[in-house]
From TrEMBL:
The lineage of its organism: Eukaryota, Viridiplantae, Streptophyta, Embryophyta, Tracheophyta. This is ELMO domain-containing protein. Pfam families: ELMO_CED12. It comes from the Eukaryota. InterPro entries: ELMO_dom, ELMO_domain-containing. Residues 1-11 have a biased composition (Pro residues).
Length: 283
């Protein structure tokens, strides 16, 4: 899936968390390498290597080792039934393209308008009004190519769940704003795409601890992706203000947003999206 037309165009300190489940291993983070392979074998390998038998787990579960800041750490690939079901459902959402001819997609777009402008009637699915929300043209469907229908679902979830924060960002109500601001709706599509890349959920095996940690969160809350999106949006806007950014800086702001999200997800006491420090920015 290619990135959408958008404004012009990293993990962190390691924290230890050992988490086990009776169905399998969710995610394991250690400060010392525990691979069965010897240090000499690991030293010459790529950043991802297969582990030997994980005898310390006791169930013979398959794992991979990830190199992070010179140390090899383990993620177990086995998923619980709940994790597998919710992960597959999320993957399906990520594969759905926005289809302007589908009635349910049209209805979702209309619902987004009502949630954004409850007192203003929409003239049509193709209208100059959409530019007020930060779409690039009269037809917002052309901006969904990069991230698909899930990016519309994310915006709608944000508008309904955290309406005050949504309106604050939409109207650029806080801070000293740039003369050339980021377009709100298109920025939202880019944030969805950034999170999809960061979590790497389409890969067949785990390659990052951020992915493994997120899948663990998904087993606790099916809406973890949508909640993470809301956090990402307020983090992006805060980064925008902190950097005194303008339109041409958008890609750089998005990169720093991803770095901060990864850092927070890796914190030792973050077990849910709600535990992330930046969650407090939502209201």
């Amino acid at each position: 899936m290619e990135s959408t037309a958008a404004p012009p165009p990293a993990p962190s300190a390691a924290a230890e968390r050992d988490s086990e489940h009776h169905h399998g291993c969710l995610a394991v983070r250690t400060s010392l390498p525990r691979c069965a392979l010897g240090a000499s074998s690991l030293a010459g390998s790529s950043d991802e290597a297969s582990c030997g038998s994980p005898r310390w787990i006791g169930r013979g579960l398959s794992c991979v080792c990830i190199k992070r800041k010179g140390a090899y750490e383990r993620i177990c690939m086995n998923l619980t039934p709940v994790q597998e079901e919710r992960l597959q459902r999320l993957k399906h959402r990520m594969k759905v393209y926005f289809d302007p001819s589908r009635r349910d997609h049209q209805d979702a777009l209309k619902a987004l308008w009502r949630a954004t402008y409850p007192d203003q009637e929409l003239e049509g699915l193709i209208s100059e009004q959409w530019k007020d929300m930060g779409w690039q043209g009269r037809d917002p469907s052309t901006d969904f190519r990069g991230a698909g229908f899930i990016s519309l679902e994310n915006l709608l979830f944000f508008a309904k769940t955290f309406s005050a924060s949504f309106q604050r960002l939409l109207k650029k109500q806080c801070g000293n704003r740039a003369t050339w601001e980021y377009p709100f709706a298109v920025a939202g599509v880019n944030i969805t795409f950034m999170i999809m890349q960061m979590l790497d959920l389409q890969s067949t095996k785990p390659r990052t601890f951020v992915r493994a940690i997120f899948i663990q969160m998904l087993s606790e809350d099916e809406w973890a992706f949508d909640l993470l999106y809301c956090v990402a949006f307020v983090v992006m806007d805060k980064q925008w203000l902190d950097k005194n950014a303008s339109y041409m800086d958008f890609n750089e702001v998005l990169k720093s947003t991803r770095t901060q999200l990864e850092r927070e997800l890796m914190l030792d006491d973050v077990m849910r999206i709600e535990d992330m420090p930046s969650y407090s920015l939502l209201c």
